[in-house]
Structures are given as C-alpha cells and as structure tokens.
Design brief:
C-type_lectin-like; growth factor activity; 3 helices
C-alpha cells in the first residue's frame, strides 16, 4: 500500500511539473500573441495613415486646386453617408464650398468631369435641424447656390430631403434624400 501511495505521489509530482511547464509555455505564447496583436494594430494604423496620405496626394494630383484645398470628383454612386466615409478614408472630407468663388470653381470642375446633368454630393446637410444647413465640419453654411426656377425652386424637400447635391450642368444646389446614390466630390487640404 505504501508503495502504491509513493507511486501515486511520484506520478502526481511529475504531473505537477508538466502542468507548470505547460503553464509557462502558455504564458510565453500569450505574451507573444499580445506583442503580435500590438504589431498588427500598428501596421493597421500605418496603413490607414498611408491611405489617407495617398488620397490627399491623389486629390491634388488628379483633381483641381481651389484656394487652400484640392477637390476630386468620384464616379461611383454612394449614399451621402457612404460618400462622407469614403472621403474621410482618403484623408479628406466632402466638398464644402464656403463662398461664391469656391462654389464657381467647384461648379466649373464638376461640369468638366461629368458631362451632362448629374447630381454630385456636397458636404452640406440639415439633418440635425430643419432649415439650418451645416457643412461636414459642423460649421454653419453662409453662402448658398440654390436652384431658382419658377417651376421648382430649392430647397423644397422639407424634412424628407436633408442632404445637398450640386447639379453638374449649372452648379445649382438641390436638396434630396440622403439615401439616394450619386457621384460625390471630396476636398483635401493642400
């Protein structure tokens, strides 16, 4: 009986050593995994920063410089929110014509890019408060280029149409549903 107990104790001791060694290995693997997760996050952050810088450079190389910013039109149909996200992913924001000079320059550029009458998202909306138009950076819009026509003057959508697009043929602004898919215009700091 003593010999059986001794044999069990030796087996238990050996098992304890193996469990301790296994736990040490698990801790080392956990530390390596944590280090790798940190490295992955750093690489992801660098990739995101690089995408933004590439977008900014592309905006200035392929688009048009207007004052202290560059604008670039994109020929993919996106909702207002998706267009805003895509501009931010590229290191910019949706275009915000702050005065008549910028508006006219953007309208001229958009007319050259999109032949015909195509709506193009601008970074302007009144989603937070009806009739109070804000740029993407939350500053209030003070210059407007609303479509004026005896049949359909803008804005005319009330609480249904809260996002603003520019018509590519004449540069006039229209309010429309934010979920509508259309081309968009990003701006980038020079």
């Amino acid at each position: 009986m003593d010999q059986a107990i001794h044999k069990l104790n030796v087996g238990h001791y050996t098992l304890d050593i193996k469990v301790s060694q296994l736990l040490e290995r698990v801790v080392r693997l956990d530390n390596r995994l944590s280090d790798n997760e940190d490295n992955i996050q750093q690489v992801s952050s660098h990739c995101k920063d690089n995408r933004k810088e590439i977008g900014r450079l592309e905006g200035c190389l392929k688009g048009r410089k207007i004052g202290s910013k560059c604008v670039l039109a994109f020929r993919t149909h996106e909702t207002y929110a998706d267009a805003s996200d895509k501009c931010q992913e590229r290191g910019g924001r949706m275009a915000m014509p702050r005065d008549r000079k910028e508006q006219e320059a953007m309208a001229e550029y958009v007319k050259l890019v999109f032949h015909g009458n195509w709506p193009v998202w601008l970074g302007i909306n009144d989603q937070h408060s009806e009739g109070i138009y804000l740029f993407e950076d939350a500053t209030q819009v003070t210059y407007f280029q609303w479509r004026k026509h005896f049949l359909s003057s803008q804005p005319d959508g009330g609480k249904r149409e809260n996002c603003i697009n520019m018509s590519s043929d004449d540069g006039d602004w229209w309010d429309t549903y934010c979920e509508r898919r259309m081309y968009y215009l990003c701006e980038f700091d020079v």
